[in-house]
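tool_call predict_complex ligand=coenzyme A
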Amino acid sequence: MSIFITPTIETDRLILRPLDLKDADDVFEWTGDERVAEYMIYPCHKNIEVTIEWLCSLDSLENEYTWGFVRKSDGKLIGSGGMRFRTEENVWSFGYNLRYDCWGQGYTTEASKRMIEYAYSENNAREFVSEHAVENTASGRVIEKCGLVFDGYSEYSKFDNSRTFKCKKYRMILK
Ligand SMILES: CC(C)(COP(=O)(O)OP(=O)(O)OC[C@H]1O[C@@H](n2cnc3c(N)ncnc32)[C@H](O)[C@@H]1OP(=O)(O)O)[C@@H](O)C(=O)NCCC(=O)NCCS
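tool_result ok
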């Protein structure tokens, strides 16, 4: 087990950087939005205290990077994503969420490709997995556009067990 230090990296339109407590208001814009949280493993944040608690937990997460996505054009924090090394399976899994008014503009695909590239070059990551609730087709498109291919069905539940989703799993093995 190790604590990864999330670096600042970039794409054409985004800066991917570590999140900190000062970001709480901006992050709550999406963690507190039912439309964004619906298929996420976390239950929608009821108040900003929950978001602050989550931000405080990031520094001690093991084997995981968490990036905030900042739009270069206006400096706005519009979402976040994570890349986690699952030691037991020797694979890297990734996920993301974006504030609602920024959906459908290719930001998540752009950020996810960069997260993959970073783990590939800096951590020697070669095998990547991701999954999405069957109904969450937009996430499926992001995963496919990152090059992963369908690898079967499974299911996952929210942390508070309030909902369980049938999900599609994907995998990619790079040379
Ligand atoms: C999933 C999510 C991160 C996608 O972010 P995004 O920045 O809009 O994604 P992109 O613009 O890079 O790509 C979205 C793709 O899905 C497609 N798409 C968008 N809405 C769709 C819908 N309702 N049905 C089918 N496809 C859809 C887009 O057309 C695009 O594909 P294309 O380039 O082939 O046209 C965003 O919708 C979100 O934050 N959802 C809530 C959180 C979440 O579900 N996270 C993933 C959990 S597994």
